[in-house]
Each structure stands twice: as C-alpha cells, then as structure tokens.
Amino acid sequence: MQNIVMTINNFLWGNFLIILLMGTGIYFTLKLNFIQIRKFGEGIKHVTGSINLNGKAADKNGMSSFQALATAVAAQVGTGNLAGAATAIASGGPGAIFWMWASAFFGMATVYVEAILGQVFKKRIDGQITGGPAYYIENSIKNKKIAKGLSYFFAVACISALGLMGNAVQANSISAAFNKAFGVSPALVGIVVAVLAGFVFFGGIKRIASVTEKIVPVMAGLYIVACIIVIGINYQEIIPAIMSIFYSAFNPQAALGGAMGISVKQAVRYGVARGLFSNEAGMGSTPHAHAIAKVTHPGEQGIVAVITVFIDTFIVLTGTALVILTSKVSLTSGAGIVLTQGAFAETLGTFGHVFIAICLLFFAFSTIVGWYFFGEANVRYIFKSKKSINVYRAIVMVMIVIGSIMKVELVWELADMFNGMMVLPNLIALLALGKYARTAMKEYDIMPEPEEKINKIIV
Questions:
Q1: H or E element that contains 124
Q2: Do the record's keywords include Glycoprotein (predicted)?
Q3: 219 with 422: CB under 8 angstroms?
Q4: Could you tell me which residues are beta bridge partners of residue 63?
Q5: I need a surface site. Which of 79, 243, 257, 339 has the fewest CB within 10 A?
C-alpha cells in the first residue's frame, strides 16, 4: 500500500503541484500588489489588538475574528511544525527549510484570497453559518455540473485528508512522542486523545472556539520561548545553520558532503510539501474558519489570514528548524517527532523529550480540533443533516485511535496524497474567482485608517 501511495505522491508532488502552488502564490502576489507586505503591519495590529482568551461565545452566526484566527492557527500550528519540519530536513536536507519559506511567502497572498472567498460565499445551512472552498468552488466555472462535481470532490478529499487521515497523523505523532518520553503504549495514548477530542467535538462550534482561543496563544508562546532558549544556548551555531539552509537549498549534496544523496528536487519537494502541510496555504483548509468570522468586511479577515501563515512558518516552524540545525543532532537519528525530540534533548537533556511530548500533545490536539471542524463543514455541505455530523464525529474518534498505532511513513504519505487532491479543485476556484479578492482589497484600501478599523472591530 505504501508503494502505491508513494507512486501517486511522486506524480502529485513532482513538478506538477509545486509549480501550481508556487505559481498561484506568485500570481496573486503580483496581482494584489504584494498584499502580504503592504498589509503586514495592519494585520499584526489587528491580531495583537483583538487577542482575548475568553471572548464572546461562538454561535450559529459564527465566531469572532480572533476565534477564527485561533482555529486557523490551531490547524496550522501542529505536527507540521514539530514533526513536519524534522521530516523535511531529514528527507530534503536543511535546504528544504528555504523552500518552506518561499512557499509560505507567496502562500500568504494565496491564503488572503482563500479567506476573502470564504467570507463572500458563506451560507447558512441548517440554521448555522458555514463556508469554505466547497461553497466557492460551486461558483468557479460556468458549467454548473462540473463545478458541483469539483466541489463534491473537494469536500470528500477534505474530509479524508483532514478529518480522517490528517487527524491520524496528529495522533500518530502524539503517541510516538509519549512512547519515547514516558514509554506509554501508543494505543492507550490514542484512546485518551480520542475521548478528549470527542468531548470537544460534541460541544459544537461554541466549545471548539472556546478551546482554540485559549490553547493556541499559550502553547505557541511557551514553545517559541523554549526554542529561543535552546537556540540561544547554541548561539555559535546560528550563522552556520542559516548558511546551510540557503546553501543546501541549491546545492544539497555539496552542503551535506554527498553523504545523504539529496538532490535539489528532493529539497524543493519536501520543503513545499511539508510547508503546505504546515501552513496549509492553497490547500483550502483554513477558509472554513475564516468564512465564519464576524467581521464588517471580507478584507479584514483576509489580512488576518496572512498573519496566520507568518506565525506558523516564519516563527514556529523556523524555531523548530533552527533548534534541530544548531543542536548538531544527527539528521539520520530518527524520523519526524523523534528527530525534534532528539534535538531538544541534545541541549536540555532528558527534559527535552518530555517537553516536546507535552508540547506536541497541545499542538496536535488543537490541530485535531481545527481539522475536525474543517471536515465537519464539508460533511454539512454534502449531507446537510445533523445526524451525519454525529456519525462523522464517531469516525474521527476511531481514526485517532487507529492513527496512533500506524506506521509513521505510511501515515505521512497518505496525508500528502489527500492534501494534494484537495489542492487541485481549490486552486482552480481561486484562479477563477480571484477578481472578488481584488475587488475586496480595493474596497478595504479606501476604508478608514487602520486604527479606526481596529477600534471598530474591537467594539
């Protein structure tokens, strides 16, 4: 099975999706006049000015802008930042991090468009506001039958990629980390995580928003501080680590002495693939959260979406990468979370294993909650029934348990395959409907000054 999945991924993640993802990001960067740079400062002010760990409860009309951001970041900042960064470096060399950065920079423009389209095409289904790519894909092309087929294809791929296979990945990394740190049975860890997740799932949007707005700021803050401490202890290796990222991005064999046999193509492939898995720009996942944010204009949530990619890749993921590269841990010492734990342990001793296990529990658990929610939006789209939501919740809990005992390589490859399947219909819709984002950008640009906008949002 793994060979079959890898064959599919070699096609999807060969030149095809990499060119498509990067090309789309570059296209929107130019079309929107470098929106990720122009609106970056305003986005930071918007995010920092609206932080609230106990905001107004989400309801059938949606959630606050910060809760939507927290839900999006909960999905983005997870296994991809801890285990995914390590997997990228182990498989593609330090240069893979450069390609993560590149895909994230251009992806910031892509996610801006995703968030705006999510807002523009959101709907009320069964009394609740919902939205996401399936809803805007319907309007992407004139042939309604083909458009509907693409939207259903996306919905099925999203449910499989995130709610089912993706959450198996998260559970797999949690169980591996706890087994390494405490010797706990992976199956037992899976059962406990499934029960905790089910408690949140069955609480609906109100409980999901409440959990993410509390967990995300705290977990991200603590992890960033830990990364700074480790990197600071190994300060003499910072410059060599950064140099290795840039040098091996274009000449990996020379940078690694040819020992690992990594090519530039591998560095790009694993950098972009793991980058997508981490920041999800262009994948069509985070628009489900941004779509239901209570904002006065789609442009507001667009700039918030830009900041989520920055936080995920340029802060959290980069912190993990520099910890691994400055700690001098052997890149062949393990795969995924084991390599990240080993890097922290090189500097912090046994505490490094324990710290990462605990961090990963919160990171991956919040991602499970976020990805469950994204999948739920698509279950609602396909079935339009409350009963189907409860069945979906139960299946996700089962997948969490199964994922905790699966072989890690197969889990990651399956996640890559389903992620790739989500990308195709989503990017078709983004390119077809990009005019709406450009119109929203122009409208938002002529609105009152940023300070007035932020005050209006907070009030």
A1: strand 123-125
A2: no
A3: no
A4: 293
A5: 257
